[in-house]
Specification:
Layout (H helix, E strand, L loop, with lengths): L1 H18 L6 H13 L1 H32 L14 H4 L1 H20 L3 H4 L17 H8 L3 H28 L8 H27 L5
Helix pairs in contact: 1-3, 1-8, 1-9, 5-8, 8-9
Length: 213
């Protein structure tokens, strides 16, 4: 759980850094997109490793959830959590909802299924003046529908809520979290997750408010 979660956390950061290039204009983001699409020897191994991480993470989460149920088959008569945060108490549900969000995201921008983008456009034929896939136009069109943009903001919000606990608990699971610097790790997890949320949410919001178009 910890190792696969950590690897996916790194992917989330890398993916964000790539997406934020949309603020640098069409040339930059389209060059980045063309680089990825032209180097299948890089992108496909990365996709396979990521898919393996997701599969193992889901399996580990299911296993831990079952073990928790077995360990306490009878629920508390009155449960008043004192140490567990909201993020930690909702990890299973936030994980399920994030999985649904990721599936939609893949259909929207990776597989470019026209039926899910709510714009009436097919993103696949979009090309820039150099014949490259127009990632900039795809993103600005894709986030032009308020429902889609707000869904993305909510989705990344839940993702970052999930990360805020997972990034902290990861060190505990690996045995690398000591009392002397545990508050530092917890703070980095919370503030880092907030920074990731701001970064991801800034893109659909910028399109909605015509800051990029």
């Amino acid at each position: 759980m910890a190792v696969t979660g950590g690897m996916m956390f790194l992917f989330v950061i890398g993916h964000l850094l790539g997406n934020l290039q949309v603020f640098l204009g069409p040339e930059q983001i389209n060059t980045y997109g063309h680089f990825l699409q032209s180097n299948l020897e890089i992108i496909w191994p990365a996709r396979i490793v990521l898919l393996l991480c997701v599969s193992l993470h889901v399996w580990a989460a299911s296993k831990l959830a079952r073990e928790n149920v077995v360990a306490r088959p009878v629920h508390y008569a009155v449960w008043e959590p004192t140490a567990a945060s909201y993020a930690s108490r909702t990890m299973v549900w936030s994980g399920v909802i994030v999985a649904v969000f990721i599936i939609y995201h893949l259909l929207h921008y990776t597989f470019m299924v026209p039926a899910v983008n709510l714009t009436g456009h097919d993103f696949a034929p979009l090309l820039d003046n150099q014949g490259r896939h127009d990632v900039y136009r795809m993103m600005t069109l894709g986030f032009s529908h308020p429902v889609v943009s707000l869904f993305y903001v909510a989705g990344v919000g839940l993702l970052c809520l999930h990360l805020s606990h997972g990034a902290s608990a990861m060190w505990q699971s690996l045995g690398w979290k000591k009392k002397s610097y545990a508050p530092l790790l917890d703070g980095l997890a919370r503030w880092g997750s907030l920074a990731i949320f701001i970064g991801y949410a800034s893109i659909p919001l910028a399109v909605m408010f015509h800051l990029i178009q």
